[in-house]
Fold this protein.
Amino acid sequence: MITKEQVLEAQNTWGQGVVKIGSLKGSRLECEAFTGEFLEKLYSFGKSTVLFKPTKCAIEQFRPLKEQALSYFIAGDSRACNEDKGFAIQPWTKVRFENTDIILEENRAIAMGNYFFTDLNGQEAKVEYTFGYKLIEGVLKIDVHHSSFPYTIDDSAV
């Protein structure tokens, strides 16, 4: 049975990884290598289907391939999706999760809530997320990643 502690640790590792990616922005080769390892370690690319829908995507909303996820996180000249600006190279100084709840099963866990990304000026960006985790060879791997900005009410449309 997957435990809540395993999910919290996976979230912590993911947040630390996003911060590290941004810290490597000045060294493209190191940044690419680390981000590739990050995706390999935390996502189930190559092991099972990955449903990846990142926040800041309008044209290519869904990213089932590792190369597309890499493009989203760090962009660059060889990016797989032209709209990508490199979400993780913002850079961010901190990522924190606030889980609404976590569903735990034998080989699967699903977490939903908000996560907050802190920029260099101390400003937080609030993003809604759902992550699905699958136990693969004893390790939790993300196979569902959906995030979006919270809905804002448009008073003029009411």
